[in-house]
Write a structure and sequence with these properties.
- The structure is a single chain.
- The protein is mainly alpha-helical.
- It is built from seven helices and no strands.
- Helix 3 crosses helix 5.
């Protein structure tokens, strides 16, 4: 499991997450999100191929730095994905999104939704108000 831990650490590193964030910020708005069983826009596939290249380049640097092989990583990821007791591993999601168009489109859609999210008074978190409510509950419980 040590290899997967290293891989997960790499995929959660600022270097990789910033590369993904920058890529999605530059490209997600160019994608046409249509049902996957419908006709797909060629530009979507071009962006998918660019994403694949970016992930492959990042992964190659990791593999060389750690002295690993692509085959060993693929086998470890496949074993983890098929193991019912495994915890969620973000690295596998990023790798699958670089090899499967549908997974890439879901990742890009999730990013686009997060980028477009604007909190309002119903969804905004107010830490001061939350602390006030907890204090009021504690006072009521003590009484």
């Amino acid at each position: 499991m040590e290899m997967l831990e290293k891989l997960e650490e790499f995929f959660c590193s600022p270097k990789f997450t910033c590369a993904i964030g920058e890529f999605m910020s530059e490209n997600a708005e160019k994608l046409e999100f249509v049902p996957l069983d419908g006709e797909q826009h060629l530009q979507n596939f071009d962006i998918f191929k660019q994403y694949t290249s970016m992930v492959e380049q990042q992964l190659e640097e990791f593999i060389q730095a750690e002295g690993l092989s692509v085959k060993a990583i693929c086998e470890a990821c496949a074993a983890a994905q098929n193991d019912d007791s495994h915890m969620h591993i973000a690295a596998i999601d990023y790798l699958v999104a670089s090899t499967e168009y549908e997974s890439f489109m879901q990742l890009a859609y999730d990013h686009a939704c997060m980028a477009a999210y604007e909190p309002n008074e119903l969804t905004a978190w107010e830490p001061e108000a939350e602390g006030t409510r907890e204090a009021a509950v504690a006072v009521e419980a003590a009484a």
